[in-house]
Amino acid sequence: MEIRFKSSECNGGELVKSFNKDFEISFLSEEEYSEFKEGVVGIVREIHVNNIFVLFQDYNNENSENCTLQVVQNHPVFLLQFVMDGEVTFSLNENTSKEFSTSKNMYNLFYIPASRYLYRYLNPKKQVLNIYFTESFLECKMGECFINHSKKYHQAKKENQICSFFNRGLVLNRKLRNIVNEFLNCSFDGLSKQSYLESKLTELILMALSSGDSETVINEIRKEDRENLIRIENYIRTHLKEELNIEKLSLLAGFNTSKFKIVFKQVYGMPVFKYITSLRIEKAIELISKHNYNISQASYEVGYKNPQHFTVAFKKKLGYLPSQLIN
Fold this sequence. Notes:
InterPro entries: Homeodomain-like_sf, HTH_AraC, HTH_AraC-typ_CS, PchR_regulatory_protein. GO terms for molecular function: DNA-binding transcription factor activity; sequence-specific DNA binding. Residues 230-327 form the HTH araC/xylS-type domain. Keywords: DNA-binding, Transcription, Transcription regulation. With 327 residues, the chain is α+β, with helices and mostly antiparallel strands. It folds into two domains: 2-216, Jelly Rolls (Sandwich), CATH 2.60.120; 221-326, Homeodomain-like (Arc Repressor Mutant, subunit A, Orthogonal Bundle). It is built from 13 helices and 14 strands. Strands 3, 4, 5, 7, 10, 12, 13 and 14 form an eight-stranded antiparallel beta sheet that branches. The chain has a six-stranded antiparallel beta sheet with strand order 2-1-6-11-8-9, with no helix packed on it. The protein is globular, with a radius of gyration of 21 Å.
């Protein structure tokens, strides 16, 4: 199996990757690239573990919003694509008449036949996690029923066309985002790292595809409302230090308070304040564990004016005191 990548932003021309059948490999393979054209800053990471190939793009183009990544593959694959920042569209053979799009804080599963296709990145900032695997891997992890029940997949396979499993894509919720972060920030080395990455990828794939049951609920929500929810979730995530209340968030989302609470829980799986508390505690753990903040400093940075209130919320959620992170 061979996949060729050619980006309009990278120096060095075309990148050719050759793989054994079903991405089989007995060791962990990693590469990182940072050689971009002038005005482009960031990294591209490749991670190859048994049966899975990962391409992570995290960079910013100061000169242009639009860039392209041409991909040629000689074997059909499945692509599970998570877009943390930016917006990505792609189509076969530069034919934009049938274009697939994944927006910020969304993800989707695609079947891609042996073909030439083109990614278009519509924002200067790009943070995209692409996970490639084959049908045999998907059947092994999800069972034959997952793809056998998909009529549009079998039709696309017959016609050599791209197929998206979730029409509008699904929301990248907190649980999935946590798994993505754990995968990307692995601190293990050697064989332990290989085992950890394989387990995290399996967990991420299973969680993401099992969440497909919520597609009907999400599709029933108007596109504008869904986009507003995603925008507000990002606002919450980047303003944890501020006072966040239902009235303020509802107003920013353009909903009345009752609708906001109902629709938020439908999409993100929990009430607004429970979601905010979870984000605050996760951020505080990062500040304490990785950046040597004390408990008072961390609690203040995530929106708690009283460290005791933070300690109570932390203990209630996790079952132990934040001081144990320091110890």
